[in-house]
Amino acid sequence: MAQPSNPEHVLLNGQTLEGGGQLVRIAIGLSALTGRPVSIENIRANRPGKTGLKRSHATAVKLLADVSGSQVTGGQVGSQFMSFVPRTERMNGPLVDLTQTVVQSKYDINISTAGAICLVFQALYPYMLYAGSQAPVPFIRVKITGGTNPSKSPSFDYASQVMAPNFAKLGLPPLEIILHERGWSSGPVCLGAMTFLIHPLGSKDGQGDGPSIERSNVEGRTSTANKFPKIDLMAHENGKITQIDLTVLAPDYVNVDTDGLCKKCTLRDYITQTTRQKLRSAMRKIHPSTFALQTPSRESSNDDAEPELPVPFRIHTSEATYHHSHVYILLVAHTSSGFRIGHDILGSLGSHKKQNGQKGRNKQRLTKDDRHAERDVFSAATELARGCVEGFMQEISNVNPDESDATTPTTKTCLDQHMRDQIVVFEALGEACHTGTISEVANTREDGRDWTLHTRTAQWVCRQVLGGINV
């Protein structure tokens, strides 16, 4: 496709870097915020199988276009090319004038599949933070029906325990997330729902430190000059780990004859104990300076405290699921600097023949095949716990470098890798709001080796859309 004649119109190649849906979500969000038209070709061309827009992407595009009054071409499912053209013009700054914008107090979005709810939210959130000041209520309710625990996407648990607290710590307004029902994209697909309570920039509600809203009257019209906060991750201390939380979602199949940690316990209990054991073993290999100096607490009605861990260990969430493919584990570290570092894993445990409902003598005795199947399930559960702990240890092992060498600069940020890519768009918007554009070069104080392909893709999109703005 030829480059658009309008110099403000940005053409993006959807195959760049990660080449997935993240590129689309960030591009349309920035387009709505800046009033700068964006066209994307080769959408999700790097993805195996079906390329083009998925249902969740098309849902986000339509809603964002409706809210911002933008025009969309090619926004249907399967489209490999689309253009997003806002009708709102920029005011004196990089962001659009909101005086003619109408924002509702509630939105109810149905993806109609178990597509990732949090990824639809990712496309809407920056614009809602800015335009939400035009709503007739202190905060906007956005309810989304789809997948709450999808594969390769943020879950409700990660979003509520890691993303929302970190957003607030970095200066964004409070974000509250409510779970109505869980939705899974694996195994027996089922839809769930979440509601996001979005406080706009400048909100005085809640406990956020968002910037205040400045309003000025120009020719009888009120314009909003609220800005995204300037974010410098390297200005924040990494801190030391003060507490670790565990979330386990798994079936309550009974383990009736497995040697190891426990006998006659449920699969959910087995995963909890296995994760704790592997975490305890892995933490012995980490330098003690990673952890805050404190005595682990034993105060817990469920005996959740683990005296052999260097910091308190808490069961944050433990829920029964109803299929062997609906298994989820999340570990979250709290740091002394107020951040959360998380790592999660979603997996399937293969097949499992339930004995509940068997009658007579068959209920009392398991066949040899049953026992093998059960051992396979618990073996798979062990591997999931191991994988989650290993990923978690990679995230926290360098969270607090040895402070004995004061001449060595800190290069690792206070965030985990997945959280890091969620912050890129807000870093860029903060820089654009305060300087009028964004730098073409990444922050050299940060070790780019920690950046994922998603992080690099987000940075590239931000530079393409925000870097050439004339204000």
TrEMBL record:
Basic residues bias: start-end ranges: 351-365
Endpoints of the signal sequence: none
Region (Disordered): 349-373
Residues of the RNA 3'-terminal phosphate cyclase domain: 17-467
Molecular function terms, GO-annotated: RNA-3'-phosphate cyclase activity
Gene Ontology biological-process annotations: RNA processing
Matching Pfam families: RTC
Gene Ontology CC annotations of this record: nucleus
InterPro entries membership: RNA3'_phos_cyclase_dom, RNA3'_phos_cyclase_dom_sf, RNA3'_term_phos_cyc, RNA3'P_cycl/enolpyr_Trfase_a/b
Name the record gives this protein: RNA 3'-terminal phosphate cyclase domain-containing protein
Species of provenance: Penicillium salamii
